[in-house]
């Protein structure tokens, strides 16, 4: 039943060598890895305008130089990550680059920051997608949390099916969104060029505005930079690309940079040209679209695919989180289970853990995740900075021919992303202070896990030359409750292994004890019977005491094995009809004793 | 932690021989066993009046002859159950008497009916108690279900502490209630005798009333009979009495009968004398009390203890259900776990199961259990009837000297309770039809369980004379993942038991397989290494296949044992850091194979 349901939902298991077939072409990779970055176009310009409007409509023209600055930063990031891809062809996320060049602790800061960030991405995107749905269908408003969780569930199943399948499905909305935005930019540009647009608000370019300060400009710039989250996804995911992986990844990154940059600056220019100011109940994109095309079919097409892409931004995290978790687990900073590929060759555990943690975040916040956005942005820019710093160190150390140019690119990138991180910290401290709790906690967990694995390796390491197996004697203890086929079966088995077998009976009163002793003598199975008396009607406690004694007496020379019979019933409900003494006994023995436990199944025929 | 909490809530474990100390004196038994019956006084008269008032106030005088008829039935029931107590000194509930005289199926009808009934009792009483609380404190009205469940939880803990302790606590409200009702009857009688009462409604005794029919009189009578539920509790619980158990039980029953009868007829007479008609928002008892004493301290005392006793009625079920379940389990109609005495010598499993089922009933019905009351009444009168019929059969079969008198008593009792059952069926079919689903279901479950236990006994039975243990050879299979101390430990252990040991390694690719083979040769532990290749990254599946093959080849001559190492970590969270392959392997092996599983603990030091 469970197996069938699983097959239906995620498909048949795949062989390991099919991994190569699961690799992504450039077009598919762009769909899977860029939805987070591209979706930022839907709100990037608006974030800038929201800061500027506080100084009045006249200040809105600043959005143009700020957008150009963001575009510059995007260029630097893309170029710099392109360098990283070639330098780390087996996957060069911020974690790897920082670890490799700046030491493991710095790597963990970058890695931990990104992990937390991916969880935030999923929670924020699913909530944003839900808001889009509930705005359209207000009756669903009371079920926001349930809808967001259903969305996460859908993405989880899609990703468990494997990356190529999810890529095939995701390509459609991602490319439709790109088409929609270009239709908007071209249509809007045409309308403006042909003079069909009446500027709603006068905001002459270059006019000095009263009250403008560096602080506000920086705040607007840093808000605009939230459009750049998701750019690092490609460099993390190089192993998912078809060979030549690094070249394909680099090309995909460039494609993404060009598309993202064009869409972002296009929207910003249109917003300025149309004199659009941010409104509480209508997005900037919606305003441009309705001004350009009216509220017709084109408008609704643009709005629908925008909602879709906002929701799909979460999918970037579903591609990136399991890979990062895999890398951290390979370095023994996360549990081993994140290194295991599932039935469909994805890192299923990473996918499932991401889904659970983001669902918890949604439940805890009641689906109201807006306050998490700044946290999410700083969680991206910290690893950006560390990654660039790592690359700088690398150029200085290796000094390959012509290293000055890439070093300069990385230095500019590092300084810019560092500045943005600091601006975030200063301008939005009330919303990002949680990072100072999250990050140290995550890093402490990483280190604890690593310590445990290292201790374990030390403990388990063996000197092949000298340490060989050394057999000892063996005592087998069989708890018996009467004389039945089960007991006969157990004794037969024990006698096959050793001559030193002892049966133990726990009685509650003299009568039953005497009866058992008499019957045992009569049966005479060739095994000594030890009788214990229980005052508290517990079978397990006197048994444990007896086993303690046996162990204490013989542990030096013998292995002590306790033989526990286990009924295997035909129907599951029959299990309810048996005192689960054997389960209890096993649990106790595991917890306290160093004895071995042999479970002898007794399969009931009826 | 858990142990400490348990000790705090239910007290220290008690030795088996302390069972005698847990026996009940007559006064305590009355408190534990009569709360259900006595609490009926609070609503019995009212039930009669509610039927009569449909014909107008003039019909209310019929409550007197009807009450006398109920009193007559009470006398018959008490006398008849007194006979049962002496006939079945080890506990003669309806189940035992019916089973013993009328066959096992009839016994199961009686037993099943009572079991369902006890669950209803708890649900109905807890809801009634909750209603009393929320009437006083309306702000709690939205939390009715939670309050009712808290009440059940309190009763559960009280009963898990043991019956003498719960009796000591329960004596107070039960006896306060008796005192309160007698104060009411004496005070009310005095007021009436001294002529201080003005009759509110004229209802002259003996006046013919238009529209009166036998149907209505019977309906009123059967409603009044709901006051008799709980009378059978004493005869079920004889084993809980101090010796001489049957004499003490008989005396307790008589005491209960006298108190119940006096209180019931007293309330009925007062209600008539005061000309009280039932009101929607005030109980009959409350009307009498306020007419007699005004709304002063005496009035509130009476109301408070009435609410308390209504709630405590549930406790009778907590005493009776586990005992009945024990008897059914002893006869193998219910799971064995109901025969086990807990730490405090009560049948804890019965107590807990009753609590859970009644809590579910409350949750399902949303705390609105009024509709269950008729179901609950018929669930009592069916076993009443069967019990009496059983006694009749007994007298006829045994014919002891002077059997005619007790036979007559039982015959009258049987005919009366049968009639009442039929009246319930006819007059309240819409509310009691569920019994035709519940009862057959419960009986079918009983029979299924019995069948399983009988099959099991057949299967496990052994011929002591001829069937002796017969040792065979032994093969031990050790799954290995590398060469570590764990593997060395496992091989040492296996070699202590047999010479036929084989290690199995599951590899995912050629490289790791070759490396393992080379290293194994170098180590040379004296055990052959078998190498399997897994295409689906599953370790368990290839292993299972291999074990299948080994079993198929050797099962006739050898026991096959799979040796599974189990890490015992120092901190519980460390368990998360290990692939739980051994758990998974064990689960698979249990489900499908007849191999033995030896778990070798490896205790990690750090």
The average pLDDT of chain A is 84
- Second CATH tier, the architecture of the largest domain in chain A: Up-down Bundle
Q: Structural class per helix/strand content of chain A?
A: alpha/beta
The H-and-E topology of chain A, N to C, reads as HHHHHHHHHHHHHHHHHHEHEHEHEHE
| Helix-residue proportion of chain A | 55-70%
Which chains make the largest contact?
A-B, 80 and 81 residues
Helix run count of chain A: 22
CATH top level class name of the largest domain in chain A: Mainly Alpha
Instruction: Catalogue the unreliable spans of chain A.
Output: none
CATH superfamily of the largest domain in chain A: Amino acid/polyamine transporter I
Distance between the termini of chain A: 22 Å
Q: For this entry, what is the oligomeric state of its chains?
A: homodimer
Tell how many strands the DSSP assignment of chain A holds: 5
Strand count, sense and closure of the main sheet of chain A? 5 strands, parallel
Total domain units of chain A: 2
How much of the residues of chain A is beta strand, in percent?
5-15%
Fold and architecture overview:
Two copies of one chain form a homodimer. Chain A is an alpha/beta fold. Chain A has two domains: 453 residues, Amino acid/polyamine transporter I; 131 residues, Rossmann fold. Helix content of chain A is 65%, strand content 7%. Chain A is built from 22 helices and five strands. The first copy, chain A, has a five-stranded parallel beta sheet, sandwiched between helices. In chain A, strand 2, helix 20 and strand 3 form a beta-alpha-beta unit. In chain A, helix 12 runs antiparallel to helix 13. The longest helix of chain A is centred in the middle third of the chain and has 34 residues. The first copy, chain A, is elongated and about 110 Å long. The two termini of chain A are 22 Å apart. At the A-B interface, helix 18, helix 19, helix 20, strand 4 and strand 5 of A face helix 18, helix 19, helix 20, strand 4 and helix 22 of B. Chains A, B: InterPro entries: AA/rel_permease1 (IPR002293), APC_K+_Transporter (IPR053153). Chains A, B: It is a multi-pass membrane protein. Chains A, B: One of its GO terms (molecular function) is transmembrane transporter activity. Chains A, B: Its main location: membrane. Chains A, B: It holds the Pfam family AA_permease_2.
């Amino acid at each position: 039943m469970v197996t069938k349901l699983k097959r239906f939902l995620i498909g048949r298991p795949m062989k390991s060598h099919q991994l190569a077939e699961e690799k992504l072409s450039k077009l598919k990779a762009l769909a899977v890895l860029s939805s987070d970055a591209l979706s930022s176009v839907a709100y990037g310009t608006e974030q800038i305008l929201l800061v500027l409007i506080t100084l009045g409509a006249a200040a809105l023209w600043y959005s143009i130089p700020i957008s150009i600055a963001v575009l510059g930063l995007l260029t630097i990031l893309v170029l710099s990550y392109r360098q990283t891809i070639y330098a780390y062809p087996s996957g060069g996320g911020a974690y790897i680059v920082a670890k490799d060049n700046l030491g493991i602790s710095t790597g963990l800061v970058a890695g931990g920051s990104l992990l937390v960030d991916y969880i935030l991405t999923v929670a924020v995107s699913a909530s944003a997608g839900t808001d889009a749905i509930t705005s359209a269908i207000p009756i669903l408003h009371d079920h926001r949390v349930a809808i967001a969780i259903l969305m996460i569930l859908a993405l989880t199943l899609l990703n468990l099916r494997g990356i190529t399948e999810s890529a095939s499905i995701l390509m459609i909305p991602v490319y439709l969104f790109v088409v929609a935005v270009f239709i908007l930019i071209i249509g809007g540009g045409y309308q403006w060029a042909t003079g069909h647009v009446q500027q709603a608000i006068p905001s002459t370019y270059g006019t000095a505005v009263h009250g403008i300060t560096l602080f506000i400009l920086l705040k607007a710039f840093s808000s605009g930079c939230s459009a750049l989250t998701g750019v690092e996804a490609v460099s993390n995911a190089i192993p998912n690309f078809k060979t030549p992986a690094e070249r394909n990844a680099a090309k995909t990154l460039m494609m993404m940079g060009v598309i993202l940059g064009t869409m972002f600056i296009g929207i910003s220019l249109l917003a300025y040209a149309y004199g659009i100011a941010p409104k509480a109940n209508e997005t900037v994109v919606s305003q441009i679209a309705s001004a350009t095309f009216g509220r017709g079919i084109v408008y609704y097409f643009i709005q629908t695919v925008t909602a879709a892409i906002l929701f799909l931004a979460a999918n970037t995290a579903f591609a990136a989180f399991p890979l990062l978790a895999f890398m951290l687990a390979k370095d023994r900073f996360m549990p081993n289970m994140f290194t295991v590929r599932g039935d469909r060759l994805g890192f299923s555990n990473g996918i499932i853990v991401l889904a659970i943690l983001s669902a918890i975040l949604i439940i805890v916040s009641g689906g109201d995740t807006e306050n998490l956005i700044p946290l999410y942005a700083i969680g991206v820019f910290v690893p950006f900075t560390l990654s660039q710093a790592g690359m700088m160190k690398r150029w200085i150390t290796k000094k390959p021919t012509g290293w000055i140019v890439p070093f300069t690119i990385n230095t500019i990138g590092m300084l810019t992303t560092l500045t943005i991180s600091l601006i975030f910290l200063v301008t939005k401290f009330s919303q990002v202070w949680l990072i100072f709790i999250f990050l140290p906690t995550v890093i402490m967990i990483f280190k604890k896990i690593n310590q445990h694995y290292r201790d374990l390796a030390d403990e388990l390491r063996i000197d092949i030359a000298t340490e060989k197996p050394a057999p000892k004697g063996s005592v087998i203890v069989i708890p018996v409750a009467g004389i039945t086929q089960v007991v006969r079966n157990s004794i037969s088995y024990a006698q096959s292994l050793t001559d030193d077998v002892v049966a133990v009976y726990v009685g509650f009163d003299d009568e039953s004890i005497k009866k058992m002793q008499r019957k045992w003598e009569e049966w005479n199975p060739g095994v000594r019977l030890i009788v214990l008396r229980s005052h508290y009607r517990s079978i397990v406690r006197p048994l444990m005491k007896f086993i303690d004694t046996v162990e204490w007496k013989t542990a030096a020379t013998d292995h002590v094995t306790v033989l526990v019979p286990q009924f295997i019933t035909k129907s599951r409900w029959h299990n309810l009809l048996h005192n689960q003494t054997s389960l209890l006994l096993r649990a106790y023995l595991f917890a306290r004793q160093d004895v071995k436990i042999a479970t002898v199944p007794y399969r009931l025929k009826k």
